[in-house]
Amino acid sequence: MPQWLKLIDGTAQRVGGWAGAITAVLAVSVAVMTWVTNSITALAAYGWGLPVLVATGVVLAVIFILSIAAIAWRFFNPLHSPSPMTVDPKSDDLRPDIGRLERKVDLLEANIKGLNQLHSELAKTHGDQSIEQQKKLTAIQIVVTALDQKLAIHETVVANGSRLLIKALRARDAMREILKPNDEIAMSLGKRLMSPESYSGDHSWLGDYHIWNEALRRVDGLMMTWAKAESGSYTSLFDFKVHHYERAPMPPENIKSDATIIPFKTVCQVQSSYANQRDGLFAFLHEMTIYPA
Fold first, then answer.
1. Three-state DSSP class for 81?
2. How many domains does the chain have?
3. Cα–Cα distance between 192 and 207 in angstroms, integer?
4. Residues 43 and 50 sit within 8 Å (Cβ to Cβ)
5. Which of 156, 196, 241, 251 is least surrounded by CB atoms within 10 angstroms?
6. CB atoms within 10 A of CB 271
7. Is residue 129 part of a domain?
8. CA-to-CA distance for 116 and 43, rounded, in angstroms?
9. Are 223 and 273 in contact (CB under 8 A)?
10. pLDDT values of the chain reduced to their tens digit, one per residue, 293 residues
């Protein structure tokens, strides 16, 4: 219930109580005065109004007298105002509560001090661990960098080694499969083609010429490829700018024909040039087959 309703309710109850008391006193007075007026014949002639008026007057008079008496009593017997309470800080009456509060304050201060000390220790420990971890991380980074450098060097060495090994194997296969077999054909047929007395005619000579020409062109193409790959210098055996066909002899009568003049002059020029370069070509390709340790 709201406070203002409680206040109104209390006031109504007090007023109701006094009204009931006054009403009761008034009713008793009316009843008494009614009995009195009925007993006295002279007063009965005035009817019921007289008892009520007299009773009311009596009640008011009684109330007035009682009020005057109460005021007089309080005037001569005033209430004593309570002396203000003074609290002595050194009094023992409040010591239990103060002591309890002081103990709680001391406990809180001790807890705060412990927490501050713990925080300082944790911060110091964390700082030391961070420095130690930073040192370890730096050392690990140095090791990783060194390993990366070694790995890069190793990869370079492996790559170079692989390249050299592949080149050596390719040079070995080229010497076995191209240079040597075609060199044997070119050298055996070249001498015979340059001295064609054993041939019965130009047709048989031209047959061997084509075989010789194909073999020597394989050797020539092989050496041009390797010289280009190794940035070397090599002049083709069939470069007609370096040959002097006018100085070459004519084919002998047993093979002489329009079809054998240029081939015969070619054999004489190219075979002689190849014979002069042959040892150098073998040495060059042999050097490519060597794998450095």
1. coil
2. 2
3. 12
4. yes
5. 241
6. 20
7. no
8. 101
9. no
10. 566 556 666 665 665 555 666 676 667 666 766 766 666 666 566 666 666 667 677 777 877 788 888 788 777 777 665 555 444 545 555 455 666 777 878 888 888 888 888 877 777 777 767 788 888 888 888 888 888 888 888 788 778 778 888 888 898 999 999 999 999 999 999 999 999 998 999 999 999 999 999 999 999 999 989 988 887 788 888 887 766 666 778 999 999 999 999 899 999 888 988 998 899 889 988 888 887 76
Considering only CA atoms, which of 183, 153, 138 is closest in space to residue 278?
183
Could you tell me if residue 118 is inside a domain?
no
Host domain of residue 60: 3-76
Q: Is residue 193 part of a domain?
A: yes
Where does a domain end: 12, 41, 76?
Answer: 76
User: Do 66 and 175 sit in the same domain of this protein?
Assistant: no
User: Residue 15 and residue 131: Cα distance in Å, rounded?
Assistant: 86
Looking at 76, 94, 112, which one is the last position of a domain? 76
292: left (phi over 0), alpha (psi -120 to 50) or beta: beta
Asked if residue 276 is part of any domain, the answer here is yes
Note whether 69 and 176 are same-domain residues.
Answer: no
User: What residue spans of the chain are helical by DSSP H?
Assistant: 3-39, 41-44, 49-76, 95-174, 180-194, 202-229, 261-288
Helix axis angle for 202-229 and 95-174, nearest 10°, is 160
